[in-house]
Amino acid sequence: MQLSRDELKRAYQRMFTIRAFEERVEKEFAAGNIPGFAHVYLGQEASGVGICHDLTDEDLIGSTHRGHGHCIAKGCDVKGMMLEIMGKAGGLCGGKGGSMHIADLSKGMLGANAIVGGAPPIAVGAALTQKYKKTGRVSVAFSGDGASNQGTVFEAMNMAVVLKVPAIFAFENNGYGEHTAASYSVGGGSIADRARSFGMPAEVVDGVDFFAVHDAMGRALEHCRAGNGPYALEIRCYRFLGHFVGDPQAYRTADELKEARANDPLPLFRKKVTEAKLLEAAELDAIEKAILAEVEDAAQTAIAAPPPDLKSLEKDVYARY
Fold this sequence. Notes:
- The strands form 2 sheets. The chain has a 5-stranded parallel β-sheet with strand order 1-2-3-7-6, sandwiched between helices. Strands 4-5 form a two-stranded antiparallel ribbon.
- The model has no long low-confidence stretch (mean pLDDT 95).
- The longest helix has 26 residues, at 5-30.
- It is built from 12 helices and 7 strands.
- The chain is α/β, with parallel strands linked by helices.
């Protein structure tokens, strides 16, 4: 599907925002400004943005422990995210969730999840709601290759098929579940084949190429919005860094790390759109400059912000409907 100039700009804006944001998170974590752990999305920008590009705020996504990129791809506020990650008042979850628990229901972001394979059961429940209410909306479950081995994920896929709900399973296969290679841990070698065995269509997608992901997601959306049940995408991509910021990555060879950096989705996007004369390099440079300023402002605001008031510990403990 041909995208307009504005859509192409938005896609690059979100991909570069993820890149700049995650590089800043890496820096602030090293400086001691981020508590707990941080799992960055560097190298996977085309996957999240390609999946979320045509989703509305009413379409829902469930994320993973590596969820910052999904938040940005879904349109979450960058400053609110940085405040949240640093555990500060004014964060998207009041500074009480942190990196692995960011949520913004106003954007259809059901939340990052520290539980491996935690999103699919939630996303299937959300998809059932969409079917019951006849909204025409979908629910997307982001998972990794490690999560593809979880029993909860198998149950979620089976339930999605049985109930014929508009759920899209987006498996981001970056080659490693924490520190274990997918080539060792994924029986049969194909996550897409596993999904097909439950009775849903599934594709293997080049996760380095935004356009390949976007096109595959278009087919998934058409299938689900037509009431045909769930769809699965195995998005093969590269993780630039380790499982968490500071991971020494002794389990990866120097050649593997070099290969990952060589498969960078941002230069590929720039090359495709400039060679096709869809956008000018100067336009993309201007986008980058504006985003770097936005991320700098978000970081400085978060560093200077106070922590949540102690009284807030007793608020938002339970959801009320």
